[in-house]
């Protein structure tokens, strides 16, 4: 099990990129806009955002090229963690494509699963692991 987001606040506005699907492999964590991802450029295969803000991910440095917005799924209780995620960016044509990230939603292309889809995907993934 991996920790997601900031250690001292479960709902801080953060993003974490992973080079494997289902949030595996090396990771790149951020809380601020990143005009260049440097060592993680074009490596992301899955992503999680936490907090109340959406994040926009871009195919080029300096927030250029095609983009997608990933909003958090807002809970109804103050005790719920708010997150948005994509377990496999290849499903949306974004595998190994992200080069910059900006806080806020600046794209018409919005991706991400709902809480209900998350539960279904976790169930499917668990069944795959133990079959």
Key phrases:
mainly beta, 1 helix, three-stranded antiparallel β-sheet, 7 strands, G_crystallin-like, Gamma-B Crystallin, domain 1, 31% strand, 131 residues, four-stranded antiparallel β-sheet
List the helices and strands and how they pair.
Elements: E1 14-20, E2 24-30, E3 46-50, E4 55-60, E5 64-70, E6 83-86, E7 100-103, H1 115-129
Antiparallel strand pairs: 1-2, 1-3, 3-6, 4-5, 4-7
InterPro entries: G_crystallin-like
Pfam family, one: Inhibitor_I36
Explained architecture:
This protein is mainly beta and 131 residues long. It has a single domain, classed as Crystallins (Gamma-B Crystallin, domain 1). 11% of the residues lie in helices and 31% in strands. It has one helix and seven strands, in the order βββββββα. It has one helix spanning 115-129; strands spanning 14-20, 24-30, 46-50, 55-60, 64-70, 83-86, 100-103. The chain has a four-stranded antiparallel sheet with strand order 2-1-3-6, with no helix packed on it. The chain has a three-stranded antiparallel sheet with strand order 5-4-7, with no helix packed on it. A hairpin with a 3-residue loop joins strand 1 and strand 2. The longest helix is centred in the last third of the chain and has 15 residues, at 115-129. The chain is globular, with a radius of gyration of 14 Å. The mean pLDDT is 81.
């Amino acid at each position: 099990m991996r920790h997601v987001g900031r250690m001292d606040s479960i709902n801080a506005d953060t993003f974490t990129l992973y080079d494997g699907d289902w949030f595996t492999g090396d990771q790149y964590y951020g809380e601020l806009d990143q005009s260049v991802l440097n060592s993680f450029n074009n490596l992301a295969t899955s992503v999680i955002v936490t907090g109340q803000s959406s994040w926009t991910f871009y195919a080029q440095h300096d927030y250029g090229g095609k983009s997608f917005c990933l909003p958090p799924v807002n809970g109804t209780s103050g005790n719920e963690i708010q997150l948005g995620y994509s377990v496999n960016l290849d499903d949306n044509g974004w595998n190994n494509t992200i080069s910059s990230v900006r806080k806020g939603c600046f794209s018409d292309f919005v991706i991400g699963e709902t809480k209900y889809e998350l539960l279904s995907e976790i169930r499917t993934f668990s069944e795959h692991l133990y079959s």
